[in-house]
Amino acid sequence: MPQVSLTVNGRSHTAEVEGRTLLVELLREGMGLTGTHVGCDTSQCGACVVHIDGESVKSCSILAIQANGCAVTTIEGIAEADGTLHPMQAMFREHHALQCGFCTPGMVMSAIDLVQMHPEGLTEDEIRHGLEGNLCRCTGYHNIVKAIAAAWPIMHGKELPLAAE
Amino acid sequence: MYDFTYTKPSSIPAAVQALGADIEAKALAGGQTFIPVLKQRLNKPSAIVDLADLGLRGIAADDKTITIGAMTTHHQIETSEDIKRMLPGLAKMASWIGDTQVRHRGTMGGSLANNDPSACYPAAVLALNATIHTDHRSIAADDFFQGMFTTALEPGELITAIEFPIAEKTSYEKFRNPASRYAMVGVFVAKTAAGVRVAVTGAGQGGVFRHTAMEQALSANFSADAITGITTPSDGLNGDIHASPEYRAHLIGVMARRAVAAA
Question: What is the model's pTM?
Answer without folding.
Answer: 0.95
